[in-house]
Amino acid sequence: MELKPKNYITLFIVFFAVLIGIQGYQLYNTYQLKQREVLALVKKKLDNIDDSNLIFDHNLLSKDIARDYYIKLVKKEITEDGLKHLYQIHAQKTSNELTKYVDSVFKPLGMHVILKQEILGIYYKDAVKPLVRGPITVYTTQGAFNHPMELSTSKWVTEKTETNKIEGRIESKEILYVFSVPRKTSYEVVNLNWILFKELTSLFMSTILILTAFIWLFYRTIKNLRRQDKQIAVLHDVVDNISHELKTPVATLKIAAKTLRKSADDKIIAVIERQVSRLEQTLDPLNENQSAINLSPITVDELQTIFSDFQLCNPTVKLTVEPSFNTQICLNLTDATTLFYNLMNNAVKYGAKALGLRFEAQKNYLSIQVKDNGQGIAESELPYIFEKFYRIQKDNIHDTKGLGLGLFLVKNIIRKYGGEIKVISKLQQGTTFIILLPR
Q1: Angle at 317 between CA 312 and CA 321, to 5 degrees
Q2: 86 CB contacts (<8 Å, ≥6 apart)?
Q3: Residues 410/415/417/418 CA torsion (nearest 10 deg)
Q4: CA atoms of 144 and 229, how far apart (whole Å)
Q5: The pLDDT of residue 346 is above 60
Q6: Which of 185, 268, 305, 306 could form an S-S bond across to 151 if both were Cys, CB 3.0 to 4.6 Å?
Q7: pLDDT for res 79
């Protein structure tokens, strides 16, 4: 079963949507893969940074010192805010140096990475509630975190036994201090999206190119199919017009033939000759082969006769020829007749009430302008009007009879003489044909 054009368009939209889905899925998977590769590389390099690095020496609150402060906190010798303030001071001391170090590792790779470690809470012995609530920053690089990712988590357990004398007694008491400190190290690749965009630019552009080419090819295919349908319709119309044009001379020839059977008559023979000539004139344009150029150029009188005969057949059309023509042109009589009659008759067919011809001698060319005030030609039709069998598509294609060969023959004649033809037209404003012929 043959599908209608609308069905083809629907199928195209469905397949195109599927193609977009496939391409989008591939892009997404590639994005995820590249992201994992970048993050894996960052993690690998960050694993080399730990608390034992020289960057942290004498700047961070060391574990032993931190534990002693925890004990003081239990003894209420310092406050929770005081402890947090100590961590803040030490984190600030290392921030600049740590930032430079991290940048030295990642900037050559085109990455901007920030890093921080936090204490989530400080727990004393087996207490459920923390002695100090987190987060407390242990160290950090410069920069604000928007989407931090976890690098590692750990729990630091420290203990210390202290001997305290009992007031008023000789004996002493040993007290065991045990602290559990969960910690988390986070990082963020600030320019991650830009890195991934650069990595995927070529893939993204190739995807866009494929989709664009797919749309363009479909558009061209549909356009060509519609144009072929249009040409087929025109060819059908040409056949109808040929049939219409042949009916009269054939019918006349039949009558003439019957009359000749009864008696020979010179008038009947003349009728037959005229009808045969009419048949030849109807069928000659269908022949691709053009006759050889007759080198005898048309005379001024012969050219004026063409215009006079046209005016005689079209008395309601105002025909002006300016200036008064007295320059010889290279066209022979047959070609000139075909050229001017086709241009002028076309103008009348499509509503012209006034027709102007202007001849202007230039340096190497003779310029001929044929201007009318007819219906004009749509811009979309202009590229095709000189094609064989092409007829301007109106609301009703049968409004004007013809084979669609007139302008085709005009262009071939001008090309045969080494000239050029241009057309300027606007709907409802008329049409101007500009012909340049070698002098």
Answers
A1: 80
A2: 61, 69
A3: 140
A4: 65
A5: yes
A6: 185
A7: 93
* pLDDT surpasses 80 at 263: no
Lowest mean pLDDT among 211-220, 384-393, 411-420: 384-393
pLDDT at site 247: 63
Distance CA 14, CA 312 (A): 62
- Other Cβ atoms within 10 Å of 222 Cβ, number: 14
Residue 317 contacts by C-beta under 8 Å, 6 or more apart in sequence? Answer: 311, 348, 352, 353, 354, 355
Burial class (CB in 10 A: 0-12, 13-18, 19+), 321: middle
Burial of residue 96 (number of CB atoms within 10 Å: 0-12, 13-18, 19+) = exposed
Q: Is the dihedral of CA 212, 231, 428, 409 positive or negative?
A: positive
What tokens were used for 395?
């609301």
Q: How many residues does the chain have?
A: 439
Separation in Å, CA 229 to CA 233, 315, 377, 407 = 6, 39, 21, 21
**Start-to-end C-alpha separation, the chain:** 60
CA 391 to chain CA mean position, Å: 32
CB count within 10 Å of CB 127 equals 10
Give 213-230 pLDDT, tens digit per residue.
888 888 888 888 788 877
The token duo for 105 is 């590792």
pTM: 0.50
